[in-house]
Automatic annotation (TrEMBL):
UniProt-listed Enzyme Commission number(s): 2.1.1.80
This protein's record includes keyword S-adenosyl-L-methionine: yes
Top-level taxon: Bacteria
UniProt keyword terms in alphabetical order: Methyltransferase, S-adenosyl-L-methionine, Transferase
Residues of the CheR-type methyltransferase domain: 6-281
Catalytic activity: L-glutamyl-[protein] + S-adenosyl-L-methionine = [protein]-L-glutamate 5-O-methyl ester + S-adenosyl-L-homocysteine
Source organism: Marivirga salinarum
Name used for this protein in its record: protein-glutamate O-methyltransferase
A matching Pfam family: CheR
GO BP annotations, alphabetical order: methylation
PANTHER family from the UniProt entry: CHEMOTAXIS PROTEIN (PTHR24422:SF8), CHEMOTAXIS PROTEIN METHYLTRANSFERASE (PTHR24422)
Length: 281
């Protein structure tokens, strides 16, 4: 029998309670969580209740206001970091040929991983860049709102229990690829060889609040991040992404991100709709 998390915590969260917590975080720390889709935000709050043993929204609300350190735990719990090496292997095959076609003759390629989580997307691109001979010309910015996730990403570490899934994905992408060309083995984990992260800059940043410049990037990944945002937030973030992409630059989302309403055809070419690859006109 499955247990509904609402029943197991014994705490129902009303819209008003959710808003008062979002309000507290905004007023105290200037961090905007108002635009998260409310059902999934409430589920995340319930996880926090369970983990920190809160009995009511008031407990959570007052802890948020009183305990400055708690906000980091809060953010780490609220942001869901599900990711994988070569997540959606077919997509990565297409991505590689797109890069080969468009960037082989370009001296520098600027890439932004928005919502990079614990780094698997960056480790994946490191392998693709290496295969394409792009290692020296790619400069990447990797951002996430979760400091825990960023710390993991920066360490280049993958724990061994995840390996069978990751190796399977890698082989589906390229049956000849050898994970140990890129990673060295430790007791409980494998670690990306440091030079593969040499040209990646990591930054803690909230997509909703920060600006990312104009005509900066050749490629922007925002895979499986916008899924958690409501309509107005998607619109706001898309405006920044559109500005930050160079004309002709590629924008890539995940398979579950329903974004077509925010990608008008006068702004984006639907370059490969199946693999969710768009191109700024
Ligand atoms: C499901 S993971 C996706 C990871 C990776 N892009 C992938 O597809 O494998 C979503 C990531 O988005 C981050 N995120 C959520 N809200 C964010 C925000 N407002 N600003 C920046 N990152 C955010 C989360 O912390 C999480 O690491």
């Amino acid at each position: 029998m499955s247990i509904d998390p609402i029943i197991s915590t014994g705490v129902e969260i009303s819209d008003a309670e959710m808003r008062s917590i979002q309000d507290a975080i905004m007023k105290r720390y200037g961090i905007d969580f108002f635009n998260y889709e409310s059902k999934s935000f409430k589920r995340r709050l319930q996880r926090i209740y369970r983990k920190f043993n809160f009995k009511s929204s008031f407990d959570l609300w007052s802890r948020t206001l009183k305990d400055k350190d708690f906000v980091h735990d809060f953010i780490n719990e609220v942001s869901v970091g599900l990711t994988s090496l070569f997540r959606d292997p077919e997509y990565w095959k297409t991505f590689k040929s797109v890069c080969e076609e468009h960037f082989s003759n370009q001296y520098r390629v600027n890439v932004w991983h928005a919502g990079c989580s614990s780094g698997e997307e960056i480790f994946t691109t490191a392998i693709v860049w290496d295969e394409l001979g792009f290692r020296d010309k790619v400069r990447s910015l990797a951002t996430d709102i979760s400091s825990n996730a960023l710390e993991k990403a920066q360490s280049g570490r993958i724990i061994k229990p995840k390996l069978s899934e990751y190796e399977r994905n890698l082989k589906l992408y390229n049956s000849k690829a050898d994970l140990y060309r890129y990673f060295k083995e430790d007791e409980n984990e494998i670690i990306l060889k440091p030079y593969f992260l040499d040209k990646v800059k990591f930054k803690n940043s909230n997509l909703i609040m920060e600006d990312y410049g104009v005509d900066q990037y050749d490629i922007i990944f925002c895979r499986n991040v916008l899924i958690y945002f409501d309509g107005p937030a998607k619109e706001k973030v898309m405006e920044k992404i559109y500005k930050a992409l160079k004309p002709g630059g590629f924008f890539i989302i995940g398979f579950l991100d329903s974004m077509l309403n925010y990608l008008p055809e006068e702004r984006f070419e639907y370059y490969d709709l199946r693999q969710r690859i768009f191109r700024k006109l």
